Amino acid sequence: MLADQLRKASASPRASVIALSIAVPAFIFLVAAEYATAYELGLGSFYLLVILAVGWFCGLPWATLFAFLAMFAQIEIGRTGQVAATDPAAFYIANANRLFAYLLVAWLISIVRALYHRENEMARVDYLTGIPNKLGFDEQLKVEMARHRRDGNPFAVAYIDCDNFKSVNDTRGHSAGDRLLRTIADTSRRNLRATDTIARLGGDEFAVIMPATGEFAALQAVNKLRKLLSVAIERNHPVTLSIGVGVFLDTPESSDHVVSFSDNVMYQVKTSGKNRVLHGTYISDADGAPEHQRVEQQRALH
pLDDT tens across 228-278, in order? Predict the structure, then answer.
């Protein structure tokens, strides 16, 4: 739970601004508190909290800046309280040690931050094809659903299944199957719009999110992609594609409903001969009709 909250806070485009707006007053408060109390109480460790927060949300340069500001503040407070006059060498060596600790913390938190973000990105990427996996797809789909609720623009989701994929693994080996999956991913990524998202949901199943796309544009894009994929695949593999396209004029209750709707359309392709495109339009009924009654129209395109 804490990790999820931290990830969401870090992903916010205003995270660094919010962090600085909190860190600056906190830093000023610490300086004032240390000035008002005895220098020997040593409030320097509290500066580490500010440096940690700034380093995480704003990066190493900002954390380094706050580390030097903390050192200069402590030097000035010590000089004002005449602490520096008792043993100047020891005083400046102690502050140099503090600076080293602050910089070390800033550097370490930057490394942890980089590793954390890299792991989060890798958790959302399919290791074989380099495109988003199921987790990355679900997150992007939720973003698109939120956009639809705000703007009202339709969107489409194409569910792609490879026909006879098992025969490739059985006759030519799993390495040939892996190459086929990478071919599908690379060809799709090159020929879709930059705003579209191609993801591997698992096995030989892929899905494409097409924002702000109605029925005509979705079918045009999917049929073009299917032709390009067929050319790329048929060079080496006896595999065809069954594709179900869900066009959403309304937004279902959850992302699972979006996937299941498009998957059901694709399943109709599989049970009616494979190797074609079928589409369904999702329109919610005021009385909350079951999902299968919300298919306005379907059309098979060869």
Answer: 998 888 766 678 899 999 999 988 888 889 999 999 999 998 888 888 899
Q: How far apart are CA 77 and CA 153, in angstroms?
A: 60
182 Cβ contact list (under 8 Å, min separation 6): 128, 129, 130
7-15 long-range contacts, CB within 8 A, separation 24+: 7/120, 9/57, 10/56, 10/57, 10/117, 15/57
Measured CA distances, 101 to 37, 38, 56, 71 (Å)? 23, 22, 17, 10
- Tokens for 165, please give them: 């994929």
For the chain, domains (ranges, CATH) are 2-122 (no CATH), 134-301 (3.30.70.270)
- How would you list the strands of the sheet with 277-282, edge to edge? 197-202, 205-210, 155-163, 240-248, 277-282, 300-301
